[in-house]
Amino acid sequence: MKNIISYILFISALNYNAQTPNWIAIKDTTMPFIAIPAEFDTAYRFSHTVGGWEDSHFITRDGLTLYCTYGPIDAFSWLDSTGGALNNFSPFSRGPDFGMDLVTAPDTSSEWFHFDILIANRDSIHHPFINWELSNMARPIFGEGGPHIIKRQDGSVDIFSYATNNTPNYSLDIFVFRDTTINPSGIGTSLPAPVNTDSTKEDNPHIERLSSSEQLLFYE
Predict the structure, then answer these.
(1) How many CB atoms lie within 10 A of CB 135?
(2) Which residue of 44, 94, 118, 186 is surrounded by the most CB atoms within 10 Å?
(3) How far is 100 from 160, CA to CA, in rounded Å?
(4) How far is CA 44 from CA 30, 32, 128, in A?
(5) Helical H segments across the chain, by residue range
(6) Any bridge partners for residue 149, and if so which?
(7) Where is region (Disordered) located (predicted)?
(8) In what order do the strands lie in the sheet with 116-121?
(9) In this predicted model, what pLDDT tens digit does every residue of 80-94 receive, in sequence order?
(10) What HEC string does 37-49 produce?
(11) 73 secondary structure, DSSP code
């Protein structure tokens, strides 16, 4: 019965009528359950989090760089109300845009929504992350997300993988940078088939290096 009641309350909280849900209240009363407290500390909300949509988080293994896929929007209400209309998102705006270009459009629209990657840095795992910054990959019209990187011991980046719809047919594909930095500029290299195809969308890459000549890729 408790599970049923919890489910009903959760659905009620996400009832997308004309009014935007009170996400601050929802976040303040939501806490993950720690199944193995001997191995994991109590979860806490990052102090630099904002009101927008922060998703697909990745933190480097040294704990010094944090990434997320970000949109300054109440994405649930936007999707429910407009079906994800890229040129009709401003009524659902939430949080800062960090300098994202959401005005340039491929047609005569006055606005055009996309997600971008944000980055936060700190100099010690004993210090908090201070604030998000827009990544150097950000560009108009097209979006980026799902970042994952492999660092070398000297701090340089071996592989930086992410997903973007910056493709001829706007399909979501996986791109990579090689021998780069924690915040590369420009556009990476699209992975060839059978990973990326014209008929499917690929997202949230996770690459592990098995040896100097072998890598293992997981993705959605």
Answers:
(1) 20
(2) 118
(3) 21
(4) 10, 9, 12
(5) 2-13, 23-28, 75-82
(6) 160
(7) 187-207
(8) 53-59, 65-71, 116-121, 133-134
(9) 999 999 999 999 999
(10) CCCCCCCCCCCCC
(11) B
